[in-house]
């Protein structure tokens, strides 16, 4: 096989003779070489919320042309105590102080090609803490409305998903 101007030419030539007739066949195909390159990289999941002390697996989807290698290098940015291994498993350390991290998959073939995922870090709330808070609320008969209002505003700021509960249970 010979290459001419980024094209491969393959072919075969056959000769044979039957009786007094000589026959020749010539068959060629021309194929343009594909450039070895990374077309795109994407990460799955692209957004994650992970509790301290837990892990999350990330996967890289790498589209290539030619014979480019699909391997990626995993890194985590913004972490104080967490890490990601070479297989894309992110371990959020229980002592992690960051609230948001960035996971990055970078092509080993072309380090200008990468994809990122964003990670929100959440704290685990133990059943003991929840029960202790419920007990305090049940016993708090002398709490002023201003303190209660401030506590509810702090809860709403930190956990916006409780807005519906507050809306259903408080009058204007």
Main attributes of the structure:
12 strands, Immunoglobulin-like, about 170 residues, alpha+beta, 3 domains, 3-stranded antiparallel sheet
Structural features, described:
A 4-stranded mixed beta sheet has the order 5-12-11-8, with no helix packed on it. Strands 1-2-3 form a 3-stranded antiparallel beta sheet, with no helix packed on it. By secondary structure, it is an alpha+beta fold. The chain has 3 domains: 2-32, no CATH class; 37-122, Immunoglobulin-like, CATH 2.60.40.60; 127-169, no CATH class. It contains 3 helices and 12 strands.
Helix/strand layout:
Layout: E1 2-4, E2 7-18, E3 21-32, E4 37-44, E5 47-51, E6 55-57, E7 59-65, E8 72-77, E9 83-84, E10 89-91, E11 100-107, E12 114-122, H1 127-139, H2 145-158, H3 163-169
Number of helices: 3
Radius of gyration: 31 Å
Tell me the count of domains.
3
SS-derived structural category: alpha+beta
The proportion of residues in beta strands is over 45%
Q: In which order are the strands of the major sheet placed?
A: 5-12-11-8
CATH superfamily of the largest domain: Cadherins
Task: Point out poorly predicted stretches.
Answer: 1-6
Distance between the termini: 83 Å
Give the overall shape, derived from the CA principal axes. Answer: rod-shaped
The helix-strand sequence is EEEEEEEEEEEEHHH
How many strands appear in the DSSP assignment?
Answer: 12
CATH topology (fold) name of the largest domain:
Immunoglobulin-like
- Assign the CATH architecture of the largest domain: Sandwich
Helix content: 10-25%
Please report the first level of CATH classification, the CATH class of the largest domain: Mainly Beta
